[in-house]
């Protein structure tokens, strides 16, 4: 199989140990996470997360196709959903997507981001990770996540 790439087009997508809804969740993808597609088995695709290298099976409908150059461009994505519980994207059909803090905002332009060919309107202010001094924000970030349970393999917020 030639190299194929995708981007997560849903707010949160489970990565499973095997190609089954009953299989253990080994990690998660957040909206905008970029992946390399390793294997296809009907509706289940084995992927490798471009950010952290985790591998797992996911339902192919949770991905949108992207090119190899777009995959490479996503390695340096610095535009993220902010520390807020009100990070809402609106799809062209009016569907609302509630994003977790630190979700990537791929290919952002003029208030819209794109997952493959799908266009999403941002209804919040973007967090520019390249403009942040970690020392200045570590306390506020830690307090935001206080009392939130840890999920093994879940996405994390990096400032």
Short description:
Helix content is 11%, strand content 38%.
Provide an overview of this structure.
By secondary structure, the chain is mainly beta. The chain has 2 helices and 13 strands. A 5-stranded antiparallel sheet has the order 6-5-4-1-7. The N and C termini lie far apart (36 Å).
Low-confidence stretches: none
Computed Rg? 15 Å
Q: N-to-C terminal Cα separation, in Å?
A: 36 Å
Protein structure class: mainly beta
| Order of H and E elements | EEEEEEEHEEEEEEH
Side-by-side strand order of the widest sheet: 6-5-4-1-7
CA-based shape: globular
| Beta content | 35-45%
What integer is the average pLDDT? Answer: 88
Largest sheet: 5 strands, antiparallel
- Which range best describes the helical content: under 10%, 10-25%, 25-40%, 40-55%, 55-70% or over 70%? 10-25%
Number of helices: 2
What's the count of strands?
A: 13
């Amino acid at each position: 199989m030639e190299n194929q790439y995708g981007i997560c087009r849903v707010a949160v997508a489970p990565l499973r140990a095997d190609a089954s809804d009953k299989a253990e969740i080994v990690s998660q993808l957040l909206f905008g996470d970029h992946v390399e597609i390793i294997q296809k088995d009907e509706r289940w695709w084995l992927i490798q997360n471009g950010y952290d290298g985790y591998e797992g099976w996911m339902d192919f409908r949770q991905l949108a196709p992207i090119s190899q150059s777009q995959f490479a461009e996503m390695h340096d994505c610095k535009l993220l959903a902010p520390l807020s519980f009100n990070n809402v994207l609106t799809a062209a059909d009016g569907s609302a997507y509630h994003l977790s803090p630190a979700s990537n905002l791929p290919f952002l332009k003029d208030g819209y981001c794109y997952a493959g060919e799908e266009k999403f309107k941002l209804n919040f202010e973007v967090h520019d990770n390249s403009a942040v001094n970690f020392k200045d924000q570590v306390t506020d970030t830690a307090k935001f996540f206080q009392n939130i349970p840890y999920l093994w393999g879940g996405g994390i917020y990096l400032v």
